[in-house]
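Blinded run. Sample ID left blank on purpose so nobody reads anything into the name before looking at the predicted structure. Input follows.
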Amino acid sequence: MTKAAPTLAQVREKIDAIDTDLLRLIDKRASLTREVANAKAAAGDLGTFALRPARETQILRRLAHTEKDAASRALVVRIWRELIGDSLHGQTPFSVVTWSHRTPGRIAELARARFGGAPTMYEVDQPEAALAQVRGGGAVAVMAITREHAWWARMLVEPTLSIVGALPEVNQWGSPQALVVAQVKSEPSNAGDETLWVTDSTMQGYEIETALSIDNLSAKMIAEASGLKLFSISGFVETDDGRLANAPGDLTGIVGVVPTAFDLT
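Blinded prediction complete.
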């Protein structure tokens, strides 16, 4: 005898029960934020900005690639971005400042997708103002990649600031449109990284990519403005890496490390 399919009411009852279980686990996870703060206080780190992009990358990649029956990787990334952002804000409250020359709505959307709904978010009209907020502490900046401004080159003379993310962070959501700047030290995630490097070389982008490949550096130009070029180099590259010694340009340097974009396929 064929087993009767569950009724809509029965399915909804199961969903309600799962929602209750999810809320209980989410609440339990949120409560661990206090334990993290206590552990940091005991270690003398209380009050330091809790953002750890490398650690977040490790978490997201592990969960996204864990075997699942129905939940998509995109769903996992969106949910855990909210959870991580809420936990981060609970440890050290921060704000998100955005800047865009042409598409403020899109940059704000990318910022919310990256940091969730917990932090306060506001827009400024100049890239210098955004960087000033990060430099002052208590803020991260999500800033558009444009042809009009080479603001990302400022990291060459801002030793406390670093580019720590490229948005959107998922391949299927489009090519990089914005970068995340924070007052944190770049760390390798060992789960896929790209090093951001700036040069003032007048060579064409493809010529610079070829020159870097000679020293076994796989690079791709992602922005150009005001006579400066920004490249992403595969892997975590240290500032004193000898392979960059002969790189083209007089004014050059590493300005950050970002996670390699997630692939949801």
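Unblinding after everyone has recorded impressions. Residues 19-39+50-259 form one domain.
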